[in-house]
From TrEMBL:
<keyword id="KW-0560">Oxidoreductase</keyword>
<dbReference type="GO" id="GO:0050136">
    <property type="term" value="F:NADH dehydrogenase (quinone) (non-electrogenic) activity"/>
</dbReference>
<dbReference type="InterPro" id="IPR010218">
    <property type="entry name" value="NADH_DH_suC"/>
</dbReference>
<feature type="domain" description="NADH:ubiquinone oxidoreductase 30kDa subunit">
    <location>
        <begin position="101"/>
        <end position="222"/>
    </location>
</feature>
<dbReference type="GO" id="GO:0005886">
    <property type="term" value="C:plasma membrane"/>
</dbReference>
<dbReference type="Pfam" id="PF00329">
    <property type="entry name" value="Complex1_30kDa"/>
</dbReference>
<dbReference type="InterPro" id="IPR037232">
    <property type="entry name" value="NADH_quin_OxRdtase_su_C/D-like"/>
</dbReference>
<keyword id="KW-0472">Membrane</keyword>
<comment type="similarity">
    <text>Belongs to the complex I 30 kDa subunit family.</text>
</comment>
<feature type="compositionally biased region" description="Polar residues">
    <location>
        <begin position="8"/>
        <end position="22"/>
    </location>
</feature>
<keyword id="KW-1278">Translocase</keyword>
<protein>
    <recommendedName>
        <fullName>NADH-quinone oxidoreductase subunit C</fullName>
        <ecNumber>7.1.1.-</ecNumber>
    </recommendedName>
</protein>
<keyword id="KW-0520">NAD</keyword>
<dbReference type="GO" id="GO:0008137">
    <property type="term" value="F:NADH dehydrogenase (ubiquinone) activity"/>
</dbReference>
<keyword id="KW-0874">Quinone</keyword>
<feature type="compositionally biased region" description="Gly residues">
    <location>
        <begin position="37"/>
        <end position="47"/>
    </location>
</feature>
<dbReference type="GO" id="GO:0048038">
    <property type="term" value="F:quinone binding"/>
</dbReference>
Length: 242
Protein backbone atom coordinates (compact mmCIF):
# COMPACT_ATOMS: atom_id res chain seq x y z
CA UNK A 1 0.00 0.00 0.00
CA UNK A 2 1.35 3.44 -0.90
CA UNK A 3 1.53 6.44 1.41
CA UNK A 4 -1.68 7.86 -0.03
CA UNK A 5 -3.63 4.74 0.96
CA UNK A 6 -3.93 3.14 -2.50
CA UNK A 7 -3.08 -0.50 -3.11
CA UNK A 8 -0.23 -1.02 -5.54
CA UNK A 9 -1.06 -3.36 -8.43
CA UNK A 10 2.18 -5.30 -7.98
CA UNK A 11 1.52 -6.00 -4.29
CA UNK A 12 1.11 -9.74 -3.63
CA UNK A 13 -2.16 -10.82 -2.01
CA UNK A 14 -1.33 -14.52 -1.72
CA UNK A 15 -0.93 -14.21 2.04
CA UNK A 16 -4.31 -12.59 2.59
CA UNK A 17 -7.30 -14.62 3.79
CA UNK A 18 -10.07 -15.28 1.29
CA UNK A 19 -13.13 -13.09 1.53
CA UNK A 20 -15.86 -14.98 3.34
CA UNK A 21 -18.73 -16.08 1.11
CA UNK A 22 -17.10 -15.21 -2.23
CA UNK A 23 -16.55 -18.78 -3.44
CA UNK A 24 -18.57 -21.91 -3.96
CA UNK A 25 -21.79 -22.52 -5.82
CA UNK A 26 -24.68 -20.09 -5.18
CA UNK A 27 -28.03 -21.85 -4.76
CA UNK A 28 -30.28 -19.22 -3.20
CA UNK A 29 -30.66 -15.76 -1.70
CA UNK A 30 -31.78 -15.53 1.92
CA UNK A 31 -33.49 -12.47 3.33
CA UNK A 32 -34.11 -11.90 7.01
CA UNK A 33 -32.72 -13.78 9.96
CA UNK A 34 -34.27 -17.18 9.14
CA UNK A 35 -35.12 -16.90 5.46
CA UNK A 36 -38.87 -17.22 5.98
CA UNK A 37 -40.71 -16.81 2.68
CA UNK A 38 -44.23 -18.00 3.49
CA UNK A 39 -45.08 -15.23 5.93
CA UNK A 40 -43.84 -12.00 7.46
CA UNK A 41 -40.36 -11.73 8.89
CA UNK A 42 -41.00 -11.64 12.63
CA UNK A 43 -37.33 -11.52 13.64
CA UNK A 44 -36.89 -7.79 13.06
CA UNK A 45 -33.94 -8.46 10.75
CA UNK A 46 -35.77 -8.20 7.45
CA UNK A 47 -32.96 -6.07 6.00
CA UNK A 48 -30.46 -8.92 6.01
CA UNK A 49 -29.76 -10.17 2.49
CA UNK A 50 -27.12 -12.75 1.64
CA UNK A 51 -26.29 -15.40 -0.94
CA UNK A 52 -26.40 -19.03 0.14
CA UNK A 53 -23.45 -20.91 -1.33
CA UNK A 54 -22.46 -24.57 -1.31
CA UNK A 55 -18.73 -25.45 -1.30
CA UNK A 56 -17.45 -26.11 -4.80
CA UNK A 57 -15.41 -29.11 -5.97
CA UNK A 58 -11.89 -29.28 -4.53
CA UNK A 59 -8.70 -29.83 -6.49
CA UNK A 60 -5.90 -32.20 -5.54
CA UNK A 61 -4.01 -32.49 -3.36
CA UNK A 62 -6.82 -32.69 -0.81
CA UNK A 63 -4.47 -33.08 2.15
CA UNK A 64 -4.14 -35.57 4.98
CA UNK A 65 -5.45 -39.06 4.31
CA UNK A 66 -8.12 -37.75 1.90
CA UNK A 67 -5.92 -38.32 -1.17
CA UNK A 68 -5.15 -41.90 -0.13
CA UNK A 69 -8.84 -42.69 0.37
CA UNK A 70 -9.73 -41.13 -3.00
CA UNK A 71 -6.95 -43.05 -4.79
CA UNK A 72 -7.87 -46.38 -3.20
CA UNK A 73 -11.57 -45.90 -3.93
CA UNK A 74 -10.93 -45.02 -7.58
CA UNK A 75 -8.61 -48.01 -8.05
CA UNK A 76 -11.03 -50.43 -6.39
CA UNK A 77 -13.93 -49.21 -8.52
CA UNK A 78 -11.90 -49.59 -11.71
CA UNK A 79 -11.10 -53.19 -10.76
CA UNK A 80 -14.86 -53.83 -10.66
CA UNK A 81 -15.42 -52.23 -14.05
CA UNK A 82 -16.94 -49.03 -12.64
CA UNK A 83 -15.81 -45.69 -14.04
CA UNK A 84 -14.78 -43.59 -10.98
CA UNK A 85 -15.64 -40.36 -12.83
CA UNK A 86 -19.24 -41.57 -13.20
CA UNK A 87 -19.55 -42.91 -9.64
CA UNK A 88 -17.94 -39.94 -7.85
CA UNK A 89 -19.46 -36.77 -9.25
CA UNK A 90 -17.16 -34.46 -7.27
CA UNK A 91 -15.07 -34.34 -4.12
CA UNK A 92 -15.38 -31.47 -1.67
CA UNK A 93 -12.92 -30.69 1.12
CA UNK A 94 -14.29 -28.04 3.44
CA UNK A 95 -13.44 -27.26 7.08
CA UNK A 96 -10.98 -30.17 7.18
CA UNK A 97 -13.68 -32.67 6.21
CA UNK A 98 -14.06 -34.59 2.97
CA UNK A 99 -17.32 -35.33 1.17
CA UNK A 100 -17.62 -37.60 -1.85
CA UNK A 101 -20.70 -36.76 -3.92
CA UNK A 102 -21.92 -40.08 -5.33
CA UNK A 103 -24.27 -40.71 -8.26
CA UNK A 104 -27.26 -42.51 -6.80
CA UNK A 105 -27.09 -45.51 -9.13
CA UNK A 106 -23.54 -46.22 -7.95
CA UNK A 107 -24.19 -45.81 -4.22
CA UNK A 108 -24.45 -49.56 -3.38
CA UNK A 109 -21.17 -50.52 -5.08
CA UNK A 110 -19.36 -47.53 -3.57
CA UNK A 111 -20.55 -48.44 -0.06
CA UNK A 112 -19.58 -52.11 -0.47
CA UNK A 113 -16.17 -51.08 -1.78
CA UNK A 114 -15.58 -48.67 1.09
CA UNK A 115 -16.54 -51.35 3.59
CA UNK A 116 -14.73 -54.37 2.12
CA UNK A 117 -11.54 -53.07 0.50
CA UNK A 118 -8.62 -53.76 2.90
CA UNK A 119 -7.07 -50.35 2.27
CA UNK A 120 -10.35 -48.58 3.06
CA UNK A 121 -12.29 -50.61 5.63
CA UNK A 122 -15.05 -48.16 6.47
CA UNK A 123 -16.87 -50.73 8.54
CA UNK A 124 -19.35 -48.41 10.24
CA UNK A 125 -21.99 -46.08 8.89
CA UNK A 126 -23.21 -43.96 11.79
CA UNK A 127 -26.41 -43.13 9.94
CA UNK A 128 -27.96 -41.25 7.06
CA UNK A 129 -29.37 -37.77 7.48
CA UNK A 130 -31.28 -35.70 4.97
CA UNK A 131 -31.18 -32.10 3.73
CA UNK A 132 -33.79 -30.18 1.76
CA UNK A 133 -32.70 -27.22 -0.36
CA UNK A 134 -35.82 -26.16 -2.32
CA UNK A 135 -33.85 -23.67 -4.42
CA UNK A 136 -31.21 -26.20 -5.50
CA UNK A 137 -33.01 -27.01 -8.74
CA UNK A 138 -32.80 -30.64 -9.86
CA UNK A 139 -31.21 -31.86 -6.63
CA UNK A 140 -33.46 -30.51 -3.94
CA UNK A 141 -33.09 -33.54 -1.65
CA UNK A 142 -29.77 -34.77 -0.27
CA UNK A 143 -28.94 -37.95 1.65
CA UNK A 144 -25.77 -37.68 3.73
CA UNK A 145 -23.88 -40.73 5.03
CA UNK A 146 -21.18 -40.56 7.71
CA UNK A 147 -18.68 -43.42 7.47
CA UNK A 148 -16.03 -44.39 10.00
CA UNK A 149 -13.08 -46.74 9.59
CA UNK A 150 -12.28 -48.41 12.90
CA UNK A 151 -9.32 -50.16 11.29
CA UNK A 152 -7.61 -47.00 10.03
CA UNK A 153 -9.18 -44.39 12.32
CA UNK A 154 -10.67 -42.29 9.51
CA UNK A 155 -13.89 -40.38 8.85
CA UNK A 156 -15.46 -39.51 5.50
CA UNK A 157 -18.84 -38.42 4.24
CA UNK A 158 -20.90 -39.50 1.23
CA UNK A 159 -23.64 -37.33 -0.23
CA UNK A 160 -26.28 -38.28 -2.80
CA UNK A 161 -28.54 -35.68 -4.43
CA UNK A 162 -31.92 -36.42 -6.01
CA UNK A 163 -34.65 -34.19 -7.47
CA UNK A 164 -37.86 -33.55 -5.58
CA UNK A 165 -39.74 -34.93 -8.59
CA UNK A 166 -37.92 -38.30 -8.33
CA UNK A 167 -36.84 -38.82 -4.70
CA UNK A 168 -35.63 -42.42 -5.19
CA UNK A 169 -32.21 -43.77 -4.26
CA UNK A 170 -30.93 -47.25 -3.37
CA UNK A 171 -31.06 -48.52 0.19
CA UNK A 172 -27.71 -49.49 1.74
CA UNK A 173 -29.22 -51.56 4.57
CA UNK A 174 -27.74 -54.70 3.00
CA UNK A 175 -24.26 -53.24 3.44
CA UNK A 176 -24.85 -51.23 6.62
CA UNK A 177 -27.75 -52.90 8.52
CA UNK A 178 -27.83 -50.16 11.19
CA UNK A 179 -29.14 -47.78 8.52
CA UNK A 180 -32.50 -49.55 8.71
CA UNK A 181 -34.05 -47.04 11.11
CA UNK A 182 -32.10 -44.07 9.79
CA UNK A 183 -33.48 -44.57 6.29
CA UNK A 184 -36.98 -44.87 7.70
CA UNK A 185 -36.55 -41.58 9.56
CA UNK A 186 -35.22 -39.81 6.43
CA UNK A 187 -38.25 -41.14 4.53
CA UNK A 188 -40.67 -40.12 7.27
CA UNK A 189 -39.45 -36.54 7.64
CA UNK A 190 -38.10 -35.71 4.16
CA UNK A 191 -39.82 -38.08 1.72
CA UNK A 192 -36.66 -39.79 0.45
CA UNK A 193 -37.61 -43.22 -0.94
CA UNK A 194 -34.93 -45.85 -0.35
CA UNK A 195 -35.52 -48.56 -2.95
CA UNK A 196 -34.84 -52.05 -1.60
CA UNK A 197 -35.40 -51.17 2.05
CA UNK A 198 -36.92 -54.18 3.87
CA UNK A 199 -39.81 -52.19 5.40
CA UNK A 200 -39.90 -48.50 4.51
CA UNK A 201 -42.64 -47.15 6.80
CA UNK A 202 -43.21 -44.07 8.90
CA UNK A 203 -41.75 -44.39 12.39
CA UNK A 204 -42.47 -40.99 13.96
CA UNK A 205 -45.49 -39.56 12.18
CA UNK A 206 -48.89 -41.32 11.93
CA UNK A 207 -49.25 -43.64 8.94
CA UNK A 208 -51.85 -41.37 7.33
CA UNK A 209 -49.86 -38.15 7.79
CA UNK A 210 -49.78 -35.93 4.72
CA UNK A 211 -46.44 -34.45 3.69
CA UNK A 212 -42.96 -34.49 5.19
CA UNK A 213 -42.61 -32.09 8.12
CA UNK A 214 -38.87 -31.35 7.99
CA UNK A 215 -38.86 -30.07 4.43
CA UNK A 216 -38.23 -26.35 4.31
CA UNK A 217 -41.38 -25.65 2.32
CA UNK A 218 -43.59 -27.47 4.84
CA UNK A 219 -46.02 -25.06 6.60
CA UNK A 220 -44.82 -24.05 10.04
CA UNK A 221 -48.26 -24.49 11.56
CA UNK A 222 -48.67 -24.08 15.29
CA UNK A 223 -51.14 -24.53 18.11
CA UNK A 224 -53.44 -21.61 18.99
CA UNK A 225 -52.59 -20.42 22.52
CA UNK A 226 -54.80 -18.14 24.60
CA UNK A 227 -53.01 -15.70 26.87
CA UNK A 228 -55.11 -13.27 28.90
CA UNK A 229 -57.75 -13.17 26.22
CA UNK A 230 -55.31 -12.91 23.29
CA UNK A 231 -54.57 -15.55 20.67
CA UNK A 232 -50.96 -16.27 19.63
CA UNK A 233 -50.93 -17.30 15.96
CA UNK A 234 -48.59 -19.74 14.28
CA UNK A 235 -45.05 -18.42 13.58
CA UNK A 236 -45.65 -17.84 9.87
CA UNK A 237 -48.82 -15.84 10.59
CA UNK A 238 -47.41 -13.37 13.10
CA UNK A 239 -46.91 -9.66 12.50
CA UNK A 240 -44.13 -8.70 10.13
CA UNK A 241 -41.45 -6.25 11.27
CA UNK A 242 -39.75 -5.86 7.91
Amino acid sequence: MSDDGHVNENTSTSGLPATQGDSGEPIARRRGMFGANNGGDTSGYGGLDRTVRMPGASQRPYGGYFDEVADELEGALEEQGVDPAEAVERTVVDRDEVTFHIAREHLPVVCRTLRDDPALRFEMCTGVSAVHNPSDAGRELHAVYHLRSLTHGRLIRLEVSVPDSDPHLPSVVETYPTNDWHEREAYDFFGLIFDGHPALTRIMMPDDWQGFPQRKDYPLGGIPVEYKGAQIPAPDQRRSYS
